[in-house]
Amino acid sequence: MKKVAIPIGKNNQIEDHFGHCKFYNIYTLSEDNRITNVEELASKKGCGCNSNIGSVLAKKGVQVMIAGGIGTGAFTVLNSLGINVIRGCSGNVDTLMKEYTSNLLTDGGETCGHTHHKKHQCNHS
Question: How far apart are alpha carbons 46 and 70 in whole angstroms?
Fold first, then answer.
């Protein structure tokens, strides 16, 4: 059994930035990569880069995070908690999960380093 999380944005699209989503879908997959359950996990308001969402996801057994943009700090925290992050994804969440369960998703290899607010960047070291 494997658990995969995706930050959800508008219209069932993956959120462009991991820490800014309204909620996360946590998918439970069977041994043969079939989705057996979907759980919705609410996100705290504001930027998630300073939240404890990594610990919460790890406690729920999440092993993989499919993300759009994600800051270096969040990426590092998730990895340190044993959560593999697949970065640079975009589009419809259902399509992304089909691609993931078919072993077609690959990591985009880049973390988010653009400015979100005048005095804030999510590329913490």
Answer: 15
> How far, in Å, CA of 99 to CA of 95, rounded?
6
Residue ranges per structural domain of the chain: 2-102
CATH class of 2-102: alpha beta
Q: How far apart are alpha carbons 15 and 93 in whole angstroms? A: 9
The one-digit pLDDT tens for each residue of the chain (125 residues) are 999 999 999 999 999 888 788 899 999 999 999 999 999 998 876 555 556 889 999 999 999 999 998 888 889 999 999 999 999 999 999 999 999 999 999 888 765 544 444 333 333 33
